[in-house]
Design brief:
Number of helices of chain B: 0
Order of helices and strands of chain B: EEEEEEEEEEE
Largest interface: A-B, 20 and 21 residues
Low-confidence stretches of chain A: none
Number of strands of chain A: 11
Mean pLDDT of chain A: 95
Helix content of chain A: under 10%
Largest sheet of chain B: 6 strands, mixed
Mean pLDDT of chain B: 94
Oligomer: heterodimer
Amino acid sequence: EAQVTQNPRYLITVTGKKLTVTCSQNMNHEYMSWYRQDPGLGLRQIYYSMNVEVTDKGDVPEGYKVSRKEKRNFPLILESPSPNQTSLYFCASSLSARETQYFGPGTRLLVL
Amino acid sequence: TQLLEQSPQFLSIQEGENLTVYCNSSSVFSSLQWYRQEPGEGPVLLVTVVTGGEVKKLKRLTFQFGDARKDSSLHITAAQPGDTGLYLCAGRPDNDYKLSFGAGTTVTVRA
């Protein structure tokens, strides 16, 4: 089944403890992206990747890192999480930047 | 400031009633999309409109793109409880490939 998977689905952590949220797609998509969703703000793009080893900042990149060493994986790294990063995170992928994006199921993160 | 403003933010109606959700901007978009998101899941694409004035129908859902490509609407006829969800509009500005999302409209259809 064609899909985007994220892990973990739920995560509670404490301020400053490094964490990684994994994202994987099996559709051979070149474009991958991370969003955060907050009430009243919709989805805001954190980082995106046009292809392997090519990443760029989205609208809200502060406090996040990403890597794209393989086409299928696009992990989101929070080196030192803070409470304002408590949010619902979505990974998405598409054939190219202008094609339809397919979203993962989301990761709900709580930073205490 | 959101590039796309959605209204209303919340909508609660009785089964069988009609509803309209609006998505407005001062920017021109090369394309505009509507998504539905259910609790615990990611957004799922419903439709993409690309031509000013375009109207697309998906069963009881009618999507319209404004003539100037700055706004869009989603109309649901005879809403059913299964239509309950968060509806998001998203657009690609004329000079950009990045997708910008509205804040969403939470629709609740009561049986």
